[in-house]
Amino acid sequence: MTAKMEASEGKMPHNKLLTYGLVIAVVGTYLTYLNVLTGVAVFSFFGGIAAVAAIWWGSDTIKHLCSYGLGTGVPSAGMIAFGSGAIAMIVGTKFGIASPIVTVILAAILGAVIGYTANNIINMNIPVMIMSLMELAIVGALTMLGFASMATGSFEFNQLIIGSMSLSVENAGAAAGGAQTFLVTAIPQYGNSLIGGAALAVIFFLGALALQHPFNACLGPNESQDRTLMLALSCGFLSMIVVAVISLVFLGLLAGVINLVISLIAWFYCYKTYIDLSKRDAYAWLDSKPIIEVGGDQ
């Protein structure tokens, strides 16, 4: 199909949303580095805010892409976003302090390749396909990186893959004078880490569902951008609540409680606002007509 649905009338242009979402997501992820600089993990919630900003932007990207059809492509778009984003995010975390920037670049490249394949090889022929899949790959990568930073307090690979260290003590034989010597080795434990313990898989689905749901729930003749975006924020903060609970395991009580309180307050405000916007739009929809029963030769 080549029909195109414009952004909701009188609302924020998509490029402005893209700019705000990308900047807040990258800056928010970098603000979690305050944990390293200060030696405390209380700044981890910035990672959750970064992830929510990416979801907020991505929900509008999904709207533009999936407007070229019946809306049935929303789930697949979300899975593509997080499938390609997961690859970019894991590889990107190997680059230390540059990880968020490298993650964005890798995700954009992956998204462009997938978009070109879908449009020019599979022949889906959707005008916004390549750009949209580039955006969605970045959204998926930054969402996972933000939530991972919130859960562990860091966006660097070692902190995501190593859960703890254990000591191995071996008898190294007798030293001069008959004293026994021992060799002590620090061994990293991977099973209780974010990646090794499969908590990253939970983050994958938390982000993907939060990205897919808003436009899927709000699409239709009375869809309004502010209501869809508010639902995206509500879904994002709802996922952030779960990540806050996960962070209790990796960061301890203080940082975990801070994450949880901020998530709950933000979710409650956004959900209440979304309900108010839903009532507004329901009241304004005056053109609906009853379904007429037809029969015989009518």
From TrEMBL:
Pathway assignment: One-carbon metabolism; methanogenesis from CO(2); methyl-coenzyme M from 5,10-methylene-5,6,7,8-tetrahydromethanopterin: step 2/2
Main location: membrane
Record's catalysed reaction(s): 5-methyl-5,6,7,8-tetrahydromethanopterin + coenzyme M + 2 Na(+)(in) = 5,6,7,8-tetrahydromethanopterin + methyl-coenzyme M + 2 Na(+)(out)
Transmembrane regions listed in the UniProt entry: 17-34, 40-58, 70-91, 97-116, 128-148, 190-209, 229-247, 253-271
Pfam assignment, any one: MtrC
Segments forming a coiled coil: none
Protein's cellular compartments: Cell membrane
Membrane topology of this protein: Multi-pass membrane protein
Entry keywords, A to Z: Cell membrane, Membrane, Methanogenesis, Methyltransferase, One-carbon metabolism, Transferase, Translocase, Transmembrane, Transmembrane helix
GO biological process, one term: one-carbon metabolic process
Function text: Part of a complex that catalyzes the formation of methyl-coenzyme M and tetrahydromethanopterin from coenzyme M and methyl-tetrahydromethanopterin. This is an energy-conserving, sodium-ion translocating step.
Subunit structure and binding partners: The complex is composed of 8 subunits; MtrA, MtrB, MtrC, MtrD, MtrE, MtrF, MtrG and MtrH.
Protein family per UniProt: Belongs to the MtrC family.
Protein's recorded name: Tetrahydromethanopterin S-methyltransferase subunit C
Organism the protein comes from: Methanospirillum lacunae
Gene name tied to this protein: mtrC
